[in-house]
Specification:
The protein is an alpha+beta fold and 760 residues long. It has 23 helices and 28 strands. Strands 20-24-21-22-25-23 form a six-stranded mixed sheet, sandwiched between helices. A four-stranded antiparallel sheet has the order 2-11-8-9. Helix 20 links the parallel strand 26 and strand 27.
Length: 760
């Protein structure tokens, strides 16, 4: 079953009264219906709404499925004050108050896209009809007719005439009807009319037949749906990955992904990253150092690995080793005292807890023993558990322990491996930083600050050294110097804070980059830095005590900007963060431009930030490699480019260039497309398909950039812009095919809104 089918199956069960399994006799939809009709009649008598022609009785042919006896069927017009908005102001009239309004292009399933919101004047009469309030259900008339979302904002906005507003006459659970519209639309029960363009008329939506459940049952249904949908999302993610891998490895799907990984077939092997032999020698050197310092015992040498022990081929740069050659602490077997049939203070896991590959907290037995709080048998969060004895197919099955610390012990038939390094990434700052919603930015800053505070306190309690940094700037700037919304990454430095729970005095170096984070982590963990890790540790003096547990926290998009009203981190409710930064050793790190392998003056991004964080050296990014190639002329000599141009010329076809319309973004540059057009200037037809970048450039800058590009193409003497699609559409991250399809249709089929250049 595909994910969408599973979702629709859940919704179908919900609206047939089968999802909650509850039926309360004293709750009836008739009572709710009469209350709604009473409120409707009151509004009519007060002349707030007009009296309408009575709707016909619902016939048996109109009823799509059975519902419980205490429910009833109703028309949309019975339950909702229903109207559409105002047609876009084509006359140029300026009468009325200028208000923002949303169209079908702003309205998507369950959400709104505020990237481009239009304005036009509304009279007082029009405002009453067209204004949307919290709790209204909005439905598309045209385009993807029936597409719906609940307006769940305090801010009032108006609607265009192609958007239906459904406002319940009295309190109902509006999300009950949203999910119902989703079911109807995606099962073919809600169809538009028309040949070229389908639409959903006022009359048609007025007569849509709905199952009305009692109010409390509506609440139960919505709660159950929202409880189940996250599981559908997880299933969808897993399903998509499976589909991708099915397409990528059609002849080898019987082999697991992990098998590909450990055979070196899953990712590209890069010579510059060194060899397994080099890494092995470094590990052995570190091991000998620990033996010399008396921190671990010298053990009997392990036998050489013979050919019969090697299960498969690996890349030449890899090396076969024994587990005990590369781990500091031996795997430790558990403890299996006899179980008892009464509750005790000690719960011992059974093998079933790990058999699925995921930890199951309900698979245990009580044992009547006394264990010290520091017993080695108590499990800690993120311990790795491995089955050392079971049936043939289950021996070696492993999972990561996700329960609470000291809540379980593990049996003798399992072994435990532990590790002392953890990484946490807070994505809020970068995700919300790309929006123009300043309220959301303030809330994101507050949320990260409070969450960070809880995390740090928990880590310090477990004696972790905590290091806090960021991958690049973004959230710290709400507006540009021109006063416009700033949604782009920044060139600002990022913080680095070090918290030692043992209170060791630490001095941190200055004028360093993100690449210094990894050496700092290794230094505090007592791990020797690899030769290829050329960056320096941030600590001016080595820590007195090494072999510490380390938690690295990455605040995505959390730059250090101006301490003024444009910075939500500064003006927001971020006291926990401000206290941490002021109370513990800290420094600032370069996270942009040449410091992280990008072009000079270019803002940092997640790819550059995280690769530099982990590599412990400056990692040249694709952006910089391309810039270098253009400088030294190798870009123009690229055999792939030349062959593509030559083949296009030979076969007398058009050359299509997919181009990112931006200048200084770290994600790309329009210059690359210009260079390719210049290389292919002898071709008659060169078409540019532009991806507009309203997230990394100033919103509203696209028209100016398009005109600049037109001028450059005129200088080259060839090239035509044929379509423009927003980054948020064609590069959608929400798995919303309806959005991506708009970009596909524009680029491939030439379908979409058509515009003329200013001088046409």
């Amino acid at each position: 079953m595909i994910p969408e089918q599973l979702k629709l199956s859940i919704l179908q069960s919900a609206f047939q009264g089968k999802l909650t399994g509850e039926c309360v006799p004293n709750e009836t939809a008739d009572d709710l219906y009469q209350q709604i009709q009473s409120e409707k009649q009151r509004l009519i008598s007060e002349k707030k709404i007009k009296k309408e022609k009575p709707l016909p009785e619902i016939s048996a042919d109109e009823i799509p499925f059975d519902i419980p006896d205490n429910w009833r069927w109703c028309y949309v017009g019975d339950l909702f004050l229903h109207n559409t908005g105002k047609a876009q102001n084509s006359s140029g009239s300026t009468n009325g108050i200028i208000r923002k309004f949303i169209t079908t292009s702003n309205l998507y399933w369950g959400e709104f896209d505020f990237t481009k919101v239009k304005e036009m004047p509304f009279t007082d009469t029009e405002l009453e009809r067209c204004t949307v309030k919290r709790g209204d259900l909005l439905v598309c008339e045209g385009g993807d007719c029936g597409r719906s979302a609940v307006w769940d904002y305090d801010e009032e906005v108006c609607i265009q005439n192609h958007v239906h507003r459904l406002r319940p006459y009295r309190d109902v659970n509006i999300y009950y009807f949203y999910y119902l519209f989703y079911l109807y639309k995606n099962t073919g029960r809600l169809r538009g009319r028309g040949v070229a363009i389908q639409g959903l008329s006022n009359e048609a939506i007025h007569k849509v037949v709905l199952p009305l459940a009692p109010l409390e049952e509506q609440h139960r249904i919505v709660a159950k749906i929202e409880e189940l949908l996250p599981y559908v999302d997880r299933y969808a993610t897993a399903y998509e990955k499976l589909e991708q891998f099915n397409a990528k490895f059609p002849n080898d799907m019987k082999k697991s992904i992990l098998e590909y990984a450990i055979q070196g077939k899953l990712v590209e092997q890069r010579a510059e990253e060194g060899t397994g032999e080099e890494l092995y020698r470094q590990i052995q050197a570190e091991k000998q150092q620990l033996i010399k310092e008396g921190k671990i015992k010298k053990e009997k040498p392990l036998p050489e690995i013979v050919e019969d022990e090697i299960p498969f081929d690996i890349p030449e740069s890899w090396k076969w080793v024994r587990l005990l050659d590369v781990v500091e602490e031996k795997p430790a077997n558990g403890f299996s005292p006899k179980g008892v049939d009464y509750q005790t203070a000690v719960k011992n896991l059974t093998l079933t807890a790990t058999t699925s590959g995921y930890f199951k907290a309900d698979a245990f037995k009580y044992v009547d023993i006394q264990l010290e709080p520091d017993s080695k048998y108590w499990l800690k969060k993120d311990d790795l558990l491995i089955q050392r004895s079971n049936s043939r197919e289950l021996v070696g099955t492993s999972c990561i322990y996700t329960g609470d610390d000291d809540a379980f012990i593990y049996p003798d038939l399992m072994m435990k491996l532990k590790y002392d390094f953890a990484v946490v990434n807070f994505a809020n700052g970068d995700v919300i930083g790309h929006t123009a919603d300043n309220v959301a930015k303030l809330e994101a800053a507050k949320c990260v600050s409070e969450s960070l505070d809880r995390l740090v306190k928990a880590a310090v309690e477990k004696n972790y050294v905590v290091m806090i940094t960021a991958d690049h700037g973004n959230l710290e700037r709400m507006t540009t110097p021109k006063g416009k919304p700033d949604v782009a990454h920044t060139c600002n430095p990022v913080p680095f804070v070090l918290i030692d729970p043992k209170g060791e005095t630490v001095e941190l170096k200055t004028d360093k980059a993100l690449s210094s984070v990894a050496p700092t982590v290794l230094e505090w963990m007592g791990v020797r830095k690899p030769e290829k890790m050329t960056a320096e540790s941030l600590t001016a003096c080595p820590p007195k005590e090494k072999k510490r547990k380390v938690l690295l926290v990455i605040l995505d998009g959390w730059g250090v900007g101006a301490q003024d009203a444009t910075n939500p981190i500064h003006i927001g409710e971020t006291e926990p963060w401000k206290t941490l930064f002021a109370s513990y050793p800290h420094t600032l790190l370069h996270a942009s431009g040449e410091w992280v392998g990008l072009g000079k003056g270019k803002a940092g991004n997640s790819e550059a930030g995280h690769s530099n964080l982990g590599a412990g050296r400056m990692v040249p990014q694709d952006d910089q490699r391309l810039a270098t190639a253009m400088e030294d002329g190798s870009f123009e000599r690229n055999p792939v480019f030349l062959e593509a141009i030559e083949r296009t010329k030979r076969e007398k076809k058009a050359l299509h260039l997919l181009a990112y319309l931006t200048k200084m973004s770290s994600h790309g540059s329009i210059v690359y497309a210009q260079k390719l057009a210049a290389m292919a200037k002898d071709l008659d037809r060169i078409y540019l398909h532009l991806i507009l970048d309203g997230r990394s450039t100033e919103p509203g800058s696209a028209p100016e950039l398009v005109l600049e590009l037109e001028e450059e193409l005129q200088k080259i003497g060839t090239g035509m812009i044929v379509d423009c699609v927003g980054r948020g559409i064609v590069l959608d991250r929400d798995y919303d095919y309806e959005k991506v399809k708009r970009g596909y249709d524009a680029m491939v089929l030439g379908e979409g809104k058509r515009y003329l250049l200013a001088d046409d």
